[in-house]
Amino acid sequence: MSSYNAAAELVSKNTLNGLAKKIAYIDDVSSYSFNDLEKRVQRTASAVQEIGLQREQRVLLCMLDSFELPSTFLGCIYKGVIPVLTNTVLTKDDYAYMLKDSRARVAIVDRSLSNQFVSLIEEVPTLERIIFSGPGEELSELVASHEPSLSYEETHKDEPCFWLYSSGSTGRPKGTVHKHSSLQTTVENYADPVLKITENDVLFSAAKLFFAYGLGNALTFPLSAGATTILMAERPTPESVTQRLVKYSPTVFFGVPTLYAALLNYEKFPDKKILSFRLCTSAGEALPIDLAKRWEAKLGIKILDGIGSTEMLHIFLSNTEDSYKYGTTGMPLDGYELKILSEDGVEVNQSEIGELYVKGDSAALMYWNNQKKSRATFQGEWTRTGDKYEIDHEGFYVYCGRSDDMMKVGGIYVSPTEVENALTTHLAVLEVAVVAQKDKEGLVKPKAYVVLNTEEDASESLADELKEYVKQSLAPYKYPRWVEFVDELPKTATGKIQRFKLRNLDKAS
């Protein structure tokens, strides 16, 4: 059996290639070279071993984005221990569920989140120890007290390496188990051909490391290329993001549609003369055409919209600099195969809507302790995405919403995303979510929940104006029969709109 350890590969690559003294990470406290990273990972590996964690056992990580997180994540993998990355803005009940589900013996938690965890030592029988991270906390002292481990565990490329929990947009989060080789697969299939990162790049990801998107952006990709990465512990607001963009001049920026919209509406957001972008990407939600065009008009650079998933680890379908079309998610990347199936499991014709399936080596092994959903999602070599797509006449893939968000109006499929894109081009609209609602006759029609740029604009006349506005750009049957103004839309911690909550709200009323 040939051995392969993902952490050993990533941390030694740059020190062996003459980049040991180059800056790998800059966080809110300091900057750290690739040599610092390697030594910190090896010290963490020694500490992990000393506290009794063994190969294939899980350790839950709930840490803010700082140098401690990538070094701890990689230090665990170095010794064959499986880190379980978790979102830092969940509830105590969420963490209790994940700890019980994963049976993690140890949790490494940022001190600022202690209130969510301290009582779980008593409530979760399998949890033996909580180690707090942050400046001057136990984790730093523990790691510093150990000598670097020069030997790593000889794991296999197909062996479980780390877990990510799904965002839970349609229910309980699922422990998604990824193998050692998948990190490198995302480099070969996406980072190298699309991003073309070099050691001269500076990367900044607004998406945090505990997201599949952010993990590639701020760990796998820069370490593979010898690039420098900016880490930010705080929430990515227009103010906090702009501050880093101006101070550190990143050349590659990874964002999400909601943030791009907020940055364009931020009065202190600088123009392109101040910024150093050569590339911007987006994922998580489909990028509205109007937003993409406004960004390009202001900064002279396109946003490369793509789609990935927790199950596939990173982007597998994307626009590129050489192949780009507004309002689409691009074309399949080399290394991945895609197919679109009807409800009967038959491949659809061009311009017909169906469910997207993907095949590629970065697919997760399974959902932990969930055979039913594992079989429904991981079907042989194919992974069911749950996303509805169609292919246009040029071969570009057009996002049509989630499978459970689609609606039939008069027997014809209507994509909520298409209606949302039409509404977001109206000057009064900041954000919108469209869901299916039944009328008095029990027939399904679209309903729009709208967040306005200015709350004072909310009125019946504006609601009527928005309905007519959609009719001008889309087929008449697609316009929202109801428009409800709301202060905010329900979202997962990853920023995805939870349309099922809006549907449930309609049922309750």
Q: List unreliable stretches of 5+ residues.
A: none
Total E-strand runs = 26
> How far is the first residue's CA from the last residue's CA?
60 Å
Briefly, what CATH class of the largest domain?
Alpha Beta
The fold-level CATH name of the largest domain is Rossmann fold
Side by side, the strands of the main sheet go 2-1-10-9-11-12-13-14-15
Mean of residue pLDDT values: 93
Helix/strand/pairing class, anyone? Answer: alpha/beta
CATH-assigned homologous superfamily of the largest domain: ANL, N-terminal domain
Whole-number tally of structural domains: 3
Principal-axis shape equals globular
Counting DSSP H or I runs of 4 or more residues, the number of helices is 16
Describe the SSE topology.
Layout: H1 6-16, E1 23-26, E2 31-33, H2 34-50, E3 58-62, H3 68-78, E4 82-85, H4 92-102, E5 106-110, H5 114-117, H6 120-123, E6 129-133, H7 138-144, E7 160-165, E8 175-179, H8 182-195, E9 202-205, H9 212-225, E10 228-230, H10 238-248, E11 252-255, H11 257-264, E12 279-282, H12 289-299, E13 303-307, E14 317-318, E15 331-332, E16 337-341, E17 354-359, E18 366-367, H13 371-377, E19 378-379, E20 382-391, E21 397-402, E22 407-409, E23 412-414, H14 416-424, E24 429-438, E25 444-452, H15 460-473, E26 482-485, H16 499-508
Parallel strand pairs: 1-10, 3-4, 3-5, 4-7, 5-6, 9-10, 9-11, 11-12, 12-13, 25-26
Antiparallel strand pairs: 1-2, 7-8, 8-18, 13-14, 14-15, 16-17, 17-20, 19-20, 20-21, 22-23, 24-25
Helix pairs in contact: 1-2, 1-3, 1-9, 2-3, 8-9, 11-12
